[in-house]
Amino acid sequence: MASDLLIRGGRPHGLAPADILVREGKVVAMGPCLQPPPGVPVEDVHGALVLPSLVEAHTHLDKSLWDMPWHANTAGPSLMDKIDHERHARRAWDIDPQRQSARQVALSVAQGSLHILSHVDIDTDQGLWCLEGVLATRERCRALVDIQLVAFPQSGLMRRPGTLALMDQALTMGCEWVGGLDPYAIDRDPKGQLDAIFALSQKHGRPIDIHLHEPEEMGALTLDLVFERVRALGLQGQVTISHAFCLGSARSELVEPLIAELAALDIAVMTTGPAGWSAPPLKRLLAAGVRVSSGSDGVRDTWKHYGNADMLERATFLGLRNRLTTDADMALALEVCTHGGAQVMRLHGHGLAVGKDADLFTVRAENIAHAVAAHPPRELVVRRGTVVARNGQCLHLATPSPDPIVFTKEPA
Amino acid sequence: MASDLLIRGGRPHGLAPADILVREGKVVAMGPCLQPPPGVPVEDVHGALVLPSLVEAHTHLDKSLWDMPWHANTAGPSLMDKIDHERHARRAWDIDPQRQSARQVALSVAQGSLHILSHVDIDTDQGLWCLEGVLATRERCRALVDIQLVAFPQSGLMRRPGTLALMDQALTMGCEWVGGLDPYAIDRDPKGQLDAIFALSQKHGRPIDIHLHEPEEMGALTLDLVFERVRALGLQGQVTISHAFCLGSARSELVEPLIAELAALDIAVMTTGPAGWSAPPLKRLLAAGVRVSSGSDGVRDTWKHYGNADMLERATFLGLRNRLTTDADMALALEVCTHGGAQVMRLHGHGLAVGKDADLFTVRAENIAHAVAAHPPRELVVRRGTVVARNGQCLHLATPSPDPIVFTKEPA
Questions:
Q1: What pLDDT shows up at residue B412?
Q2: Residues 6 or more apart from A50 whose CB is under 8 A from it?
Q3: N or C, fewer C-beta in 10 Å, chain B?
Q4: pLDDT (0 to 100) of residue A411
Q5: What CATH number belongs to B5-52+351-390?
Q6: CB–CB of A306 and B322 under 8 A?
Q7: What homologous superfamily is domain A5-52+351-391 in, according to CATH?
């Protein structure tokens, strides 16, 4: 719901103090000493830093164990071990995708992420169960958060016949993105998987997001196969490569030509800034003009217990991983977690400026570098002019009710 | 001050519920349904996880900017740039070591770290100013925290004549450890620096802690020079290598012989689990029998804005950096941040068990893996039976008073 609001006494982007006037969900004025028109409520944020909403541009809403009973992590070490373990655990542990996606959405909103790009597992064991659950959450939470979904063949596409037809159905049901996964390392048939997902993309007119964990030469060659298809089909600006560990190679003769081609074909890169894996060089990518987004990836799932869906902490991780230490460099980490994700999700209304959607949060920090270093709790989260979270608590998803969220007034 | 206390309703180590009875600062009984002797106060922790106090085994108490006005990070990219920038900023920005070390101690105590091994810069510009400040804090905080100090030649030893005499004086004044720093990369005279610090160690009968950022072959060779001296002087068990980036080399033929020799000579390794640097392999070191400790390193200093002195979050970082995902592996991360540090600091009373010092904290977590994954706020921190922090706030260092902290009763 688009609301009216005057946010008083904040420091937008950490610059000079300015009030922010919101009418019908849009920022209509920013400046000192604005007066609220009659009937417009006022929130005084007492000198807090005001930033545009965070963008969670890579997660898995269907697989979080958040708030569920503890299950020891017993998955084996390989990627395939973890994939098989998870498929088994979904039913055995009752990881209900509707319940769990709603919990993770509440966590995201509480921390200022109001836009989520989520992969959803599609496989021949679960069928479309995960998607149905997440679609129900998306419907219920329309007033809280923008959600885009990727039909994601987590267990492989070519190795599990029947998956492609389910992906096709998922796109008809409402997924905005076609997903892919390690075409060589998992599917063992890079040409087969890439031809299949690019054909789906063509059929439905949808963009593509490929998980690519393949390292070094293997990943580089798979990227080259992606480049071929983007060029041939004119899909510039329509493809994202998630993780892209091969771009973290120490060998610049391998990496530099890949970065140049990513820029030339306007292919985006999503990085979580992983501490334990080779990671795409954030500054180098941005300098080359590549769109870069970030995300939490799995949040306390069967793969790992870590994660909390905090995209401001994610900016900290990006900073630590990429040795971003000057104030200007640290601002890049936040930029990736806000504007970068908005670019990938094509959120044209995103950004804290006059004329944009009033999607923002406040935090007790002196400036952007401070916010990135310390990721303090979010004091206030506003979506389209409505307060949706206070002091780290989402105001509208406390109960497991399946009813859609409709804003009347803020709960006591 | 050693106190009496009954901690009721906790789950020590995440195991079965057990009360903990403390008399005169020591744990004298652990078990279900203990009754408090007359006059012994009771703290009910309502099912919280109870863990032994955290050990901050590598930090720089003299250089934190915590709670100071914001200074943009303008240091250049090289190690020497940062060193020179910091020496200048100390006076220019008034980074008073007494005030700042007290602030960081309060932060540590609030988060359950009750033992701190801190380096203190000794150089020909500052002289012993930093040490005097930190010594004053140590004296003031004796009732709160154990502090051991390393006389640390941050600006180089051989390259700045006069530093060695100051180091000698620092050891007389109360430093327990002799520090070293990149004998080749910073001092450009590995034989000179190592001979000098081992001689100081011999003269004062003190252990050695060397910052070693040198990568690959350079670091490996410097380690070999350390091994030579440990063998020749019989200093087994008396040396710690901090950072040890060379152990993070991907080349096992370089790393494995080094690990074997570290184990043979009982040389400890301190790692922060750095996301952006090559890091010693934690599991491999522990499996070889090497003592491993961890620390926050600098906490919001002129080198970088990051850091908050939370050693439970540090366990998260160790876990992420070392891909520790099973519950058992995650427990290793906590072990390094508790027992590992206690081994290095030779804290014989450390450990949550009958007969040990009652130094512990509680946290709202289901088990150790959960605590490592989420590092929730510390609800209660107890030192020698006295409550020293509650809900993330240190109870005894709120004011900048220089008076020693003497426990009477808990402030309201």
A1: 42
A2: A7, A10, A11, A12, A13, A20, A352, A360, A361, A362
A3: C
A4: 47
A5: 2.30.40.10
A6: no
A7: Urease, subunit C, domain 1 (2.30.40.10)
As separate numbers, helices (DSSP H) first and strands (DSSP E) second, chain A gives 12, 17
- Could you give phi then psi for residue B117, rounded to 5 degrees? -105, 110
Residue B75: HSE in the Cβ half-sphere, 13 Å Cα cutoff: 23
Residue with tokens 């985006």: A268
Residues 6+ apart with CB under 8 A from A361: A50, A51, A53, A54, A112, A378, A379, A380, A381, A382, A389
- Does residue B64 contact residue B56 with C-beta atoms inside 8 Å? no
Mean predicted confidence (pLDDT) in B200-222 = 98
Tell me the backbone φ, ψ of residue A29, rounded to 5 degrees: -155, 145
Q: What pLDDT, on a 0 to 100 scale, did the predictor assign at position A79?
A: 87
For residues B331 and B337, what is the distance between their CA atoms, to the nearest angstrom? 10
Q: Is the pLDDT of residue B405 over 70?
A: no
> Across the interface, do A275 and B303 touch by the CB < 8 Å criterion?
no
Provide mean pLDDT across the span B150-179: 98
SS3 call for B120: strand
Nearest to A306 among B273, B274, B373 (CB): B373
pLDDT in the model for residue A21: 98
- Kindly identify which residue of chain A lies nearest to residue B373, measuring between CA atoms: A306
Q: For position B410, what pLDDT does the model report? A: 53
Note the Cα B248 to chain centre separation in Å: 21
Could you read off the pLDDT of B331-374 as tens digits, one per residue? 999 999 999 999 999 999 999 999 999 999 999 999 999 999 99
pLDDT in the model for residue B408: 52
Q: Which residues of chain A have pLDDT under 50?
A: 398, 411-412
Judge: A306–B316 Cβ closer than 8 Å, yes or no: yes
Rounded distance between C-alpha atoms, residue A388 and residue A401, angstroms: 17
Q: Which residues in A170-181 are b (16+ Cβ under 10 Å) and which e?
A: bbeeebbbbbbb
**What is the three-class DSSP state of A82?**
helix
pLDDT average, residue stretch B189-194: 98
* Phi, psi dihedral angles at A115 (to 5 degrees): -145, 125
Binary contact (A74, B326; C-beta < 8 A): yes
What's the distance, CA B53 to chain centroid?
A: 12
Q: Which residues of A touch B306 (CB under 8 A)?
A: 316, 319-320, 373
**Residue in this structure with the two tokens 């919001």, named with its chain if needed:** B300
Q: So what's the pLDDT on residue A75?
A: 86
Which residues in chain B are closer than 8 Å to A308, comparing Cβ atoms? 374
What residues contact residue B144 under an 8 Å CB cut-off, 6+ apart? B105, B109, B114, B383, B388, B394, B396, B397, B405
Closest residue in B to A74 (Cα) is B326
Looking at per-residue confidence, does A406 or B240 come out higher? Answer: B240
Instruction: Provide the residue ranges of all domains of chain B, joining segments of one domain with +.
Output: 5-52+351-390, 54-345
CB contact under 8 A, B304 and A325: yes
Find the helix packing angle between B252-264 and B216-233, rounded to 10°.
20
Mutate which: B111, B304, B316, vs A, most A CBs within 10 A? B304
Nearest-10 Cα torsion for A272, A91, B368, A61? 30
Q: For residue B25, give both structure tokens.
A: 């600062």
Give me the pLDDT at residue B1, please. Answer: 67
Residue among B49, B43, B27, B24 nearest B368 (CA) = B49
- Tell me which amino acid residue B126 is: Q
